[in-house]
Amino acid sequence: MVGVGRRAAGVGVRRGVVVAAALMVVTGVAGGDRAQAWAQGRGLDARGGGEIGSEHVRVGGEYWVSMPLPDSVSAEPLTVVRARWLHVPRGLRVLRYGVTDADHDGICMLGVGDDAAFALAARDVRALDERPVRVPAHGRAGACLLARVEVTAPVHDNLAGYRVWYRQGAVVYRQDVAREAGLRLRPEEE
User: Fold this and answer.
1) Does 23 share its domain with 84?
2) Pick from 68, 87, 125, 136: CA 20 to 30 A from residue 108's CA?
């Protein structure tokens, strides 16, 4: 009887290990930055921050919101592989993230828009995983990160802070950038 009890306990322990391993795999597949311990990055100049926005959006509208990529402060080049807003307020839904080239002066369109200028700048938006952004050492990216958002209801808070994942050598780093984007309804729609 004692041998059977030990054997049963061993099976229980193994079963518990298998369940724990399965949960870790499911968590990893589900994504999110909690699924992996990312190295904290310091390669981007994330100080200062700033705010962009528009007070003329409408419920049901879709808009491109720029996510200005800070300059590199690293002595080595880096490659941005992912970005996302950290705080998306009620009334907004992020549809997708993308990247497009900066203009011929290396300037990114700042702000929020659905007008012709943004349409022109956004005509060549590609997913970041299709086209990672290479940033030279102590340089500018030459590309603009964008988020396509849909206004689903009146918005009373800002998109706030975004997280950038970048690769230097074989290591992927995560770094937060202090920026905000405010989208408010046109006065006649409130």
Assistant:
1) no
2) 87
Phi, psi of 183 (to 5 degrees): -120, 125
Closest CA to 103 of 126, 122, 128: 122
Measure Cα distances from 115 to 22, 42, 56 in Å: 48, 35, 11
Neighbours of 162 (CB within 10 A): 25
Domain range for 185 is 39-189
Please classify residue 84 by burial: count the beta carbons closer than 10 Å to its beta carbon, then call 0-12 exposed, 13-18 middle and 19+ buried: middle
Q: For residue 72, give the DSSP letter.
A: B
How confident is the model over 22-35, as pLDDT tens digits? 333 333 333 455 54
The pTM assigned to this predicted structure is 0.71
